[in-house]
Design goal:
This protein is α/β, with parallel strands linked by helices. The chain has a single domain, classed as 3-Layer(aba) Sandwich (Rossmann fold). Helices cover 37% and strands 14% of the residues. It has a 6-stranded parallel sheet with strand order 2-1-3-4-5-6, with helices on both faces. Helix 2 crosses helix 3 (69-78).
């Protein structure tokens, strides 16, 4: 059994090394999928991921742990063609609904340059409407450690500083695992790591 880890936008595989080490201690074999939005389009990244998932599926059962944009890449890649589905998918802070901060970030030239098509997609309701759902069992971990109240762009809604709680939902029936963590470094939190392990164990990975 192998666990594929996929990092978020503007991050690298280094961001998941702590979580990867934790999973390896449990006894799982891990692999990371890396990408760089400044040099690759979203579509190109998805195509590479699709090829990698097909290869993994041919080797046996597998699971996926994806941070932020990694969850959207996963949804897109699995929906491209008939690939043997993962046993379980864990999404960490993935914006499964259009994130309200993305259009504001897109107005910043450095963000546009660094994130390219990936960043632009986050501003588009049509993009989110085009994404397939997930047929595998999945767990959504949502952070609630962000600022709330008058000075917060999220108002009183729980958030992780980047993504609101409601924006992580794939469907209205989702039961979110809510933890008091921030978006960027949530994968390094011990409670998040324990949640990931438990979710994978519960599905016999």
């Amino acid at each position: 059994m192998k666990i594929l880890l996929i990092h978020g936008l503007s991050r690298t595989p280094l961001s998941l090394f702590g979580l990867e080490w934790h999973l390896q201690k449990i006894g799982w074999t891990t692999e990371q999928f890396g990408y760089l939005a400044v040099t690759e389009t979203f579509d190109r990244i998805v195509e590479r991921l699709r090829v990698r998932l097909r290869a993994l599926a041919s080797q046996g059962s597998y699971g996926i742990v994806a941070h932020s944009l990694g969850g959207l890449l996963t949804r897109a890649a699995l929906g491209l063609s008939s690939i043997k589905l993962p046993k379980h998918i864990v999404m960490l802070g993935t914006p499964n609904q259009p994130p309200r901060l993305a259009p504001h970030a897109w107005h910043l030239p450095p963000f546009r340059w660094w994130t390219g098509q990936c960043g632009l997609n986050l501003t588009s309701s049509d993009f989110f409407a085009s994404l397939p759902g997930i047929d595998s069992p999945y767990t959504i971990v949502a952070g609630t450690g962000g600022l709330r109240g008058f000075w917060s762009p999220f108002g009183d809604e729980p958030n992780d500083g980047i993504v609101a709680l409601s924006e992580t939902r794939l469907s209205d029936g989702d039961r979110l695992v809510q933890l008091p963590v921030m978006h960027t470094f949530m994968m390094n939190n011990s409670s998040v790591q324990k949640t990931v392990v438990q979710a994978l164990k519960n599905h016999k990975i």
